[in-house]
Amino acid sequence: MARGGAPPASPPPPLPPSGPEPLPRRALRKLLLVLGSLLMSLYASYCLAGAAHVLTREPAPIPVAPGEEAAPGTPRNPFWPPQPGGEGDKRLPQAVIIGVKKGGTRALLEFLRVHPDVRAAGAEPHFFDRNYERGLTWYRELMPRTLDGQITMEKTPSYFVTKEAPARISAMSKDTKLIVVVRDPVTRAISDYTQTLSKKPDIPTFESLTFKNRTTGLIDTSWSAIQIGIYAKHLENWLLYFPIGQILFVSGERLISDPAGELGRVQDFLGLKRIITDKHFYFNKTKGFPCLKKAEGSSKPHCLGKTKGRTHPSIDQKVVQRLREFYRPFNMKFYQMTGHDFGWD
């Protein structure tokens, strides 16, 4: 007992613990599970977004120089070259260069690309002859983006000789403008053979492929190099679906001798302002054909690749003369159908 008889002081009551009360273990486990699930969902979304970027990013360009032909087996990238800017919409083409092989279609398209109101697919889509079952949505995706007032184009020279192509293009749009680049059918056939020879050096001679029977002089019209040049026959098929005024025939010879003049006709046909003129071209004596002083999107001169302007093999002149005789009536009919004398005789 304390001095003075006072009872001893009792100890102070314990202070309540500071902060919130600890969660029960079961509630804590549930909270951790919820947080873990949320983190996993966020991580999965991040991974999926990364994968989508890889799948949709701009494809790499094909490993082929501009104007060159890809080696057999080289994958084509129909979205290359990229068009300036990322605005606009992908539209089905309003104009198609439908032919002909070895006529000068590549040169025409390269020259047209200079025009600011022309946008064209990079590689040949081959939609109306080889890929029609893929549908118009697939086809439209191959086209570059265009703004209002710009023209979407593509070129596939084999369309002109494809029986189903006219009806298919008409089904897409009866208003489609068609361009055919034609060339002396004898020279075209030799150029066609020269291209094949560069890829398959062991093929038979031009002379042996030309005739079914050389003794009688009977021409083998089943050989594609010969068959393509019967322009009147192919044109008849197109006129079943399109009026002659909706088809422009470009001279492959004048595309070399007077590129600005032929491009003027093409620009008028497409309803474009005549922007591509003489100032855009110079004649390359080494190659033997005109080149652009400035290519699209570049300040440097541009010529078609080394696969263009190949030296033709020497062909027996008697064979050449026989071919001229063979093509003459077809040429005359073609002149009458088009109202244009191309002067191949």
From TrEMBL:
InterPro entries: NST/OST, P-loop_NTPase, Sulfotransferase_dom. Residues 8-22 have a biased composition (Pro residues). Residues 93-328 form the Sulfotransferase domain. Its EC number is 2.8.2.-. Coiled coil: none annotated. The chain crosses the membrane at residues 31-55. It comes from the Eukaryota. Residues 1-22, 65-88 are annotated as: Disordered. Keywords: Glycoprotein, Membrane, Transferase, Transmembrane, Transmembrane helix. Gene3D superfamilies: P-loop containing nucleotide triphosphate hydrolases. The keyword Membrane applies. It is an enzyme of class 2 (transferase). PANTHER family: HEPARAN SULFATE GLUCOSAMINE 3-O-SULFOTRANSFERASE 3B1 (PTHR10605:SF7), HEPARAN SULFATE SULFOTRANSFERASE (PTHR10605). Belongs to the sulfotransferase 1 family. This is Sulfotransferase. It comes from Pogona vitticeps.
